[in-house]
Amino acid sequence: MRDVAIIGAGMIPFGRRDEDGLMDMLAYSSLNALDDAGLGDKSVDAVYVASMGAGILQHQTAVASALVDRLSLLPAAAEMIENGPASGGSAVKMGLLAVASGYYDTVLVVGGEKMRDVTGWRATDFVATLTHPLAEYIYGVTLPGMAGMFTRLYMEKYGVTREHLVQVAIKNQKMGALNPYAHVEMIITQEGIMDSPHSVVNNPPVADPLRLYDACPVSDGAAAVVLCPLDMVKNAKKPPILIAGFGQATDTHTLQEREDPTDLKAVTLAAKQALEMAKLKPSDIHVAELHDAFTILEIAESEHVGFFKKGEGGKAVAEGKTQLGGTIPINVSGGLKARGHPVGATGVAQVVETVWQLRHEVGKERQVKGAKTGLTVNFGGFGNNVVAFALKRVNQ
Amino acid sequence: MNEIPVVAHKCKNCGKIHYPFHDRCMNCKAREFEATKLEGNAKLLTFTQIFNLPWGFDQRFLIIGVAEFENGVKAMGQIAADSIDGLSLGMKMKALWKPVRVQAGEKVYGLMFEPIQ
Fold first, then answer.
1. Do A208 and B19 touch (CB under 8 A)?
2. Into how many domains does chain A fold?
3. Residues of B with CB below 8 A from A120's CB?
4. In this structure, are residues A365 and A178 in contact, taking their beta carbons and an 8 Å threshold?
5. Is residue B33 part of a domain?
6. Residues on chain B touching A257 (C-beta within 8 angstroms)
7. Residues of B in contact with A153 (CB under 8 A)
8. Is any Cβ of chain A less than 8 angstroms from the Cβ of B17?
């Protein structure tokens, strides 16, 4: 297998993009990545496109075929990947395997989602279609609902407190306010969302015990990367970023069939595989993008990937260990919580952000000083399909 | 309890109970199962009150939980309560088979848990 490098990374600002359709966003982020790779007027061998909802929300199928045509990348091979909220991570993995195998040399991977075309009711229902149709979906359970039930158990078992959750929200929105690609660029305070009498109005319950500021926003957005074999990178203007390891694991479809529903086995396994392949330990990681669709998930994932022992993730946030300048900065992009969560884009966006961090390109306000290694975790379903990547900066 | 048509699946080889259905046993990979009814009352394992409802629900909120029946079957259902204030982990619930939503004008039946006072 060949070592695979990321030579181009592109994104468009996430948020409510009323002026753009899904195809526009996929095209713009693809062009940004191709330009970044110095391939703005060149072809690629294959294109992998991630979207969870194009068929449901836009009533459009075969989006990958449409995108290669729009980008004049014909006759490149084109594939569509739908793997729930892990679609983006899966698409990067498919591109990685295609290049590593030696079959393709240059691959474009792009993920996008247009979720604000529909009402909140419809968007919530669309994401809920990933639950079990008969054992879960019919009851009206939503992803915030699944997270609420998980949070109740995690609080009970590990002593995570409301203050811990609030600290994740404050940290990530503070970083989002510094990220020009973030959907939410608003700094919040503990007084505003927890301590003051107004917090009841500012931060209403969404799925008890989770409140509004525990959840990511519903966003439009897209992100893209360009991959090629590391040994074909010559005289690059920017340091290539090696995909040093990847991992993917699955877990039961329903939460209730897990022996211990607080144990996110797929997160543990995917991260372990990625780190072992990269010959890294959790303590070797300089910057991490974890899938904080809900604040509890950043805490739980930080423990499951091995940054902290079980039950210590909440305290670590409160002690500032996960903020910029801490022992392991997590979601210095703002994470899903502030950058937003256009579901098909998220796994790719995590990789793009980490590439920028490892190239030292994000600006000093958000830059993890001297970062050379990164970990991403893209969490599909409610932890039933997880994709992780370990990335390394390569100095040429 | 009114008759609940939910069926769990007990592996004929190792006895592991599955709900929902799997084509192979999660434990031993065997393919033969014995249909198993939900037995007795249920213990509430976790719950939430959802305020941002999906399309198809015309109400203020939903209370949803997962409960474990006396024969080990764990299942999700709606909880018949005005609020979550009276709910606690481990409390006993009675299971009923009631309409849980309306789709295309038709009532859809499912598990409804009622707290046992």
1. no
2. 1
3. 52
4. yes
5. yes
6. 18-19, 26, 74
7. 45-46
8. no
Residue A235: the pLDDT is: 82
Q: Torsion over CA of A225, A230, A234 and A235, rounded to 10 degrees?
A: 60
Residue B72 lies in a domain: yes
Residue A24 lies in a domain: yes
DSSP lists the bridge partners of residue A221 as: A113
**pLDDT at residue B1, as a whole number:** 45
State both tokens at A129.
């279609």
Q: Is residue A133 part of a domain?
A: no
Are residues A33 and A110 in contact, defined by beta-carbon separation less than 8 angstroms? yes
A391 φ/ψ angles, rounded to the nearest 5 degrees:
-115, 145
> Are the CB atoms for A12 and A29 separated by under 8 Å?
yes
Residue A298 lies in a domain: no
Q: Least CA distance to A254: which residue of chain B? A: B20
What ipTM was estimated for this complex? 0.97
Separation between Cα atoms, residue A233 and residue A8, nearest integer Å = 11
- CATH number for the domain including A16? 3.40.47.10
In a domain, B1, yes or no: no
Residue A180 backbone dihedrals phi, psi, to 5 degrees? -65, -10
Nearest-Cα distance to chain B for A151, in Å, is 9
**Model confidence pLDDT, tens digit, residues A272-321:** 999 999 999 999 999 999 999 999 999 999 999 999 999 999 999 999 99
Q: What share of chain A is helix, strand, coil (3-state, %, to 5)?
A: 40, 20, 40
- DSSP secondary structure string for all residues of B47-98: EEEE-SPPTT--SS-EEEEEEEETTS-EEEEEE--S-STT--TT-EEEEEEE
- Structural domain count, chain B: 1
- Which single residue is written with the structure tokens 């939903």? B62
- B chain contacts of residue A140, beta-carbon cutoff 8 Å: 50, 53-54, 56-57, 62, 64, 78, 100-101
Interface test with A, best of B25, B52, B60, B89 (most A CBs within 10 A): B52
pLDDT band, very low/low/confident/very high, at A395 (cuts 50, 70, 90) = confident
Do the domain assignments include residue A390?
Answer: no
